[in-house]
C-alpha cells in the first residue's frame, strides 16, 4: 500500500471542506489543522487557496475526461453508465463520504470565486455535459432511451436533475430523497412502451 503524499492529503482535506462548507467557508488554517501541517507547508504546495481548489477540481475533471475517452473506444451500456454515475452519488450522500459534488458547491459560489477557478468550474460542467451527451446519444441509438429534446438538451436536464437531487437531499436532511428523484429521472428516459 502506497503512502499518501502531503500534497494529496491537502487536496483530500480541501475536497471535504469544499463539499461540506464551500470555498468561502474554509481557510488554510482549517486544512493545516486537519492534515496536521503548518500553513507554510500548504503554501509550498499551493501558493493560493484557488490553486488548492483547482487541484481538487482537476482530479474530478480528470475522471470525467477519462470516462469520456473510454466511451469513445467502443461498446458500453448507457443505462449502466448512468446508474454507476448516479449510484456513486447516492452512496456518497448516504454515507456522507462526499455529501455534495465539489463542482456543484463551487458553482453555487461562482460570483465570488477567483477567475481561474471559476473557469475551471465551468469547464467541469462542460466536460460532464459532454459525457452525458455521449451516453444519452448511445442510449437513444440503441432504443434504450427516449429523448424529449436533443441529446445536448437532455444532458443538461439530466445534470440539473442530479444536482437538484443533491440539493434537495441536503435541504431535507434525508439522503433517500436523492435516490427517489434520480429514479424518477431515469424512468423519464425509458421509452414510453417499456414503462
Automatic annotation (TrEMBL):
Residues 4-64 form the HTH tetR-type domain. SUPFAM superfamilies: Homeodomain-like, Tetracyclin repressor-like, C-terminal domain. PANTHER family: TRANSCRIPTIONAL REGULATORY PROTEIN (PTHR47506:SF7). This is TetR/AcrR family transcriptional regulator. Residues 27-46 bind DNA. The keyword Cytoplasm does not apply. Gene3D superfamilies: Tetracycline Repressor, domain 2. It comes from the Bacteria. Pfam families: TetR_C_13, TetR_N. It comes from Dyella humi. Keywords: DNA-binding, Transcription, Transcription regulation.
